[in-house]
# Entry
Amino acid sequence: MEKEYVGPPQNTALRASLSVSLVSAMILGLMFPMTMGWTSLATARPIIGCFLLAFSVVWLMMLVYSVKDNDPFGMFLNGIFGGFLGLGYAFSFLLGYFAQVSGVQVDWMRVEGFESLFAAVLMLVVAFVSGGLLLSLFPSFILLFVFWGGLGCVSLGFLSPIHLKLWLGPMLGLVGAFYAYVAIALFINASFLKNKLPFGGPLFYQKD
# Structure
C-alpha cells in the first residue's frame, strides 16, 4: 500500500533529484570506467575535466537556490560536489592534460593523490557533520571516504593499482547505483506526492 508523501518540499526534492543524478552520472559515467581500467586516464582526462566543469556550473547554480530556500541538504550536496569535487577535479584533469600535450613535466599522479586524500577527509567530515540531516546518505559518504582514501594511496604508490579493480572500483559502482536510485526516488515521490519508492528510511530527519 502506498504511503503518504513524507519528505522535503516538492521544489526542494526535485532540485535535489537533479543534483544527486549528476553525482551518480559523475561516478558511473566518468569515474567508475576509469577506475576499472576500461578507459585510459590519458584519453579520459580532458573529457572528464570538461564534463566535471559543466556539472559544476549546475551544482553551483543549485547551491544558490539552496541558500535562498534555506535547504541544508542542497547546501551540503551542491557545495561539496560542485565547489571542491567538481571544480577541483575539473581543473586538475584539464591542467594535467594541457601540461601533458605541452610537454611540461609535472607529477600529476602525485598531485591527484594528495587531492584524493583531501577529498577522503572531506567526505568523512561531511558524513559526521551532516549526520543529523542526511541519515540515509551517511553510509555512502563513508564508502566515498574509503574510496578516495584508497585512490589517493594508489596514486601515491602506497597501494598496488590492482586494488582499483579488486574492490575500490566495484565499491564506487555500488555508491553510484545507490545515488541513481536516490535521484529517481526523489523525483518520482515528489512528482506524485506519494512515497512510491522507499529509501529504506527517511532521507532527511531533523534532530529535536
